[in-house]
Amino acid sequence: MIVVMRPDATQAQVDHVTNLVREMGLKDHPIVGTDLTVVAVIGDERKVDGDVLERAPGVNKVMRVLAPYKMAARTDHTETTRVTIGEGDGCVFGGTQVPVIAGPCSVEGEQEILAAAEAVKAAGAHALRGGAFKPRTNPYAFQGHGEDGLKMLAAARDATGLPIVTEVLTPSDVELVSKYADCLQIGTRNSQNFKLLEACGKQSKPVLMKRGMSMTLDEYLQAAEYILAAGNGNVILCERGIRTFEDHTRNTLSLSVVPELHERTHLPIVIDPSHGTGKAHLVPAMSKAAMACGCDGLAIEMHIDPEHALTDGAQSITPAVLSDLMEDLARVAVAVDRTCVPG
Amino acid sequence: MIVVMRPDATQAQVDHVTNLVREMGLKDHPIVGTDLTVVAVIGDERKVDGDVLERAPGVNKVMRVLAPYKMAARTDHTETTRVTIGEGDGCVFGGTQVPVIAGPCSVEGEQEILAAAEAVKAAGAHALRGGAFKPRTNPYAFQGHGEDGLKMLAAARDATGLPIVTEVLTPSDVELVSKYADCLQIGTRNSQNFKLLEACGKQSKPVLMKRGMSMTLDEYLQAAEYILAAGNGNVILCERGIRTFEDHTRNTLSLSVVPELHERTHLPIVIDPSHGTGKAHLVPAMSKAAMACGCDGLAIEMHIDPEHALTDGAQSITPAVLSDLMEDLARVAVAVDRTCVPG
Amino acid sequence: MIVVMRPDATQAQVDHVTNLVREMGLKDHPIVGTDLTVVAVIGDERKVDGDVLERAPGVNKVMRVLAPYKMAARTDHTETTRVTIGEGDGCVFGGTQVPVIAGPCSVEGEQEILAAAEAVKAAGAHALRGGAFKPRTNPYAFQGHGEDGLKMLAAARDATGLPIVTEVLTPSDVELVSKYADCLQIGTRNSQNFKLLEACGKQSKPVLMKRGMSMTLDEYLQAAEYILAAGNGNVILCERGIRTFEDHTRNTLSLSVVPELHERTHLPIVIDPSHGTGKAHLVPAMSKAAMACGCDGLAIEMHIDPEHALTDGAQSITPAVLSDLMEDLARVAVAVDRTCVPG
Amino acid sequence: MIVVMRPDATQAQVDHVTNLVREMGLKDHPIVGTDLTVVAVIGDERKVDGDVLERAPGVNKVMRVLAPYKMAARTDHTETTRVTIGEGDGCVFGGTQVPVIAGPCSVEGEQEILAAAEAVKAAGAHALRGGAFKPRTNPYAFQGHGEDGLKMLAAARDATGLPIVTEVLTPSDVELVSKYADCLQIGTRNSQNFKLLEACGKQSKPVLMKRGMSMTLDEYLQAAEYILAAGNGNVILCERGIRTFEDHTRNTLSLSVVPELHERTHLPIVIDPSHGTGKAHLVPAMSKAAMACGCDGLAIEMHIDPEHALTDGAQSITPAVLSDLMEDLARVAVAVDRTCVPG
């Protein structure tokens, strides 16, 4: 931590800061510059609320030096973690192979999810997604089939062999969802629902954890740390677009997080181009871009009849588009020394 | 809902859209313009996922016409709702009087919260805030005293007569928190935790509901609608700053929401200048600005010794600053035909 | 400047950084912490491109310590600069009195601008605004009357005694505009048109300089420094809203810049609630908020017949609304120890 | 244009709106819905300031239906425009081949730019970039060598055969710069400097026009329309990152604009991953992503000795990295049915 004093700070103000630093159990190291003094603070700044020094008289600003997360950091863990979804090794995130999770936004019915699973399988994708518990912005919108939806997903898995990824909304549902799902998904609106993060950390199924739509990477990795610190190391990160001023997409898909997260963390990173754009016609191009910049997986919304989807039809591609896309992704994967072959 | 066709859309594509509209149970009304055709859709667009029409061939975009919330709308409810916190009428939001909620970010101990409550009372503010359950970005940071903290708050209420406002983080804590608190607070990170919104809607204590840091007003009022629709009409809205590119504050305090929310909803609106700036030195000016543009209340972080606060010290003002601020607020209130006098 | 090394940086990498620092003519001061090493850099970091150190091997990040502007800083100039527009002292920005600039977006004709000037005068405002050269997003929209518009403005000044503020778009027009105007306005889209800033700095009329819609305060004050460094100290800052994700206004009016700019700079700060919201119905409330948080002036769009305005009618208030607003502003001004009385 | 009335609007208010519409020379078409009335407006809404209707009594909002640009639209111009830089056809944007523009941020000296040009050529890139006139946020920073810099660029072109791209800052320099350059660049800070756009439209050299850092695509294409409407059809669009809350990059590179611009406009689109991230280590991955999603060219900052660059060293890659990247780009290009071979 570096405390930058104001140019007009007095010695007494600098002394007051060094005293506060010592009270925190840290070491101070003041440096007198040509224009102003800074106080370098030595020790683990993560354990204290150092921002409080900002309000001490004569202080201009406080700058953090250390990454605020530990277990998620690549520092002591240089290999990318491999997270396997389901039994067997058909769907491993973090290796050379880049799996694709596909399926509808929500589980609409037994026949619908089965047909979707078969289309996902036929296209060559590796896992099935579908929501049984749906977080809806509008309280009057379809909220999902709950446990019945989980059972339908399980039946679709039995029929196709595809592992299933589905969202959990609240701590009290974690046990139920983890009974059926091969991977629990935490949505963007729950990205700082710390009680839910902890609950997912206390069970053993892998967790696909979406980035909050206005989260910095430091905040994102601290949220992942909640799951890791609770005991579950099988965390897959997922970028799904951020909120900006742009209006040609529903969200802005920030692909630079892929190479940057690979620098900062050992956790694999998946891209969701469906929520990341909100527009079906942009999904193929952005999927290929994600592959080219090094993502470890993709999560794509596909619906067997998007115009009649109950949710997210606008961003869902058809089985035919998915099928073509899987072929294109296989080609791009090879061009960047990865593979994307049927599971 | 208005479906805008592309300039090159065919008649068959327009017909396909009108068929989809009819399948939704709505009426279509196509209008042929000089450059393109639009299909006006008549009926309650809130019950359907109209965005799906965006992916029909020949469609350029879909524009919503109706507000997506009903119970929160001012339309059928022209008076501002008055929400009373605590017993008696010392602290009513939505009337001429503008109450101020003040207190520390977190309940740090029995003595600390009692001293804070006495300072709040002495300054002339109207309610006490303090967190017993703390949502923390960093998993290693202080997470609050839990039920013990609630008991300390209740003791401070008994000693001062100030009603208490405190945060609830997860549905399973709602019953516990509502046993002690006079008003439940839902934080910005839980603003779309729909299970928590519903749980707060099913109990009877008033709810102070913060806007999510990247929520539009339409999304915000839909979230409020979750509480209203669950049966609790005592909702107080609270703007606490949004996430933007600005770096001179922790958040950007968007005060224009005050007059705009007064247009759209009958719910009272409180401003939190502490989180809204993240800097103690900006709190007095922004509190006065909030009063001048018509807010129905203020929520201000005050700590008896901010430099030693466990949380949010950087944005907490001292009792002396609060005391001066209350005098200043009283003057501004009068200038805009409101009052802000001790409860 | 503080160079933060990576936790795994080698001594050779630290040495390489210190060598680069010395080549820049600065002094290095490495500090070995518990987790990593930082290199404090002593000397004037403003003269070098220190960011380049970010790409040296083993470096994590570079953090600036000094404000990047000098002449605009309050440090050596503790009094707020008073900038007078026009002859006499009826319109001084930076003192106790808070002047209001009002008028139409564009000068539409001789009669229109005269009528507007008279309405501005009658309402008790202090200066007349109106655009003769209009920057228009759409190339087919009305672009202003040019020099004829300037002459109409001058005639309105002669008739009412109100000083006039008008925009200049390009360096080659600066001489012409400064011949007629009492104050030159630089618009948000030209806030980093450095050639225009310099040209305005080389003439002597005061400059009202709008903040860019996505500028940080550091960038803004550096832009102001271009004018100051070119020789013109009469700079008035003007916040007109920033671009964010919000959709209930055209821009987000960030009022916290008022107290923060007062900390950082000696230049007076004016608020433009018309562009800052884009909605006429929000202008009165936001004007009062601006007054309450300490602005040194207001710039408000008023049109004698907004429904027929050629430009910006949606955000222009009527003469009657301005008249009421001036009375309200006078009351709020007194409540914060300022005045806002007719010039 | 669609005018949405408030649910409580009276018939007189609807009539007032239809009258205003007729005064604008447009046709009105009111539609009475179940909850409210909308007035569809038929005719060319681009010629009027329809937003003014927002302030008519009883109006809730106004929604535009038509794209605000014409010449830039793909509607009447379905083939992507091919823009050739320099003589011969070695560097054509908009075809199957995807050219790469590379070089330093600024022309630092005769030897430096020559060495850079040779490195660019050796790596297999297609054009040389370098700034002679530099827009600098800080007034005290290096501003470029001006005409001398242009001469150095021309000498580097003579030595290598590479066409040159360089920035122009102000209308009065357009003639000078176009005398030397093969392509004029308009920077992000000048993206709405309409006088400069017009001046570039009145000369015949191709224009590489960067998107403003907070511009929507509609605003961007209107700015391009200024150049097209002034007579110059050789416009290349260039995305260079937008301003958002993200802090791990200097800007957020929004790659979804590539497929979306291909839908909306016939102009070719180039990606600048250097400014788009501000970090050299992210440039290779983002270049490949840009290629994969269909860009028509790349603009990359390369410096022969980035640690000693006068400007933008943090985001400049070395010749060795460029050389490897060109090989990688060639592979990705093939995977998406494009080519990227030496010019």
Output the CATH class name of the largest domain in chain A. Alpha Beta
Distance between the termini of chain A: 47 Å
Instruction: Estimate the mean pLDDT confidence of chain A.
Output: 95
> And the CATH topology of the largest domain in chain A?
TIM Barrel
The quaternary organization reads as homotetramer
Query: From N to C, what is the helix and strand string of chain A?
Result: EHEEEEEEHEHEHEHEHEHEHHEH
- The tally of structural domains of chain A comes to 2
Largest sheet: spatial strand order of chain A: 7-8-9-10-11-12-13-14
- The global form of chain A is elongated
Query: What is the name of the CATH architecture of the largest domain in chain A?
Result: Alpha-Beta Barrel
Structural class of chain A: alpha/beta
CATH superfamily of the largest domain in chain A: Aldolase class I
In total, the number of strands of chain A is 14
Specify the number of helices of chain A. 10
Strand content of chain A: 15-25%
Determine Rg of chain A (CA atoms, Å). Answer: 23 Å
Please give the share of residues in helix of chain A: 25-40%
Largest chain interface and its two residue counts? A-B, 54 and 52 residues
Question: Biggest sheet of chain A, in brief?
Answer: 8 strands, parallel, barrel
Uncertain regions of chain A: pLDDT < 50 for 5+ in a row? none
Domain DAHP synthase ferredoxin-like (chains A, B, C, D): 1-66
Domain DAHP synthetase I/KDSA (chains A, B, C, D): 94-327
GO molecular function, one term (chains A, B, C, D): 3-deoxy-7-phosphoheptulonate synthase activity
InterPro entries (chains A, B, C, D): Aldolase_TIM (IPR013785), Class-I_DAHP_synthase (IPR052899), DAHP1/KDSA (IPR006218), DAHP_snth_FXD (IPR041071), DAHP_syn_2 (IPR006268)
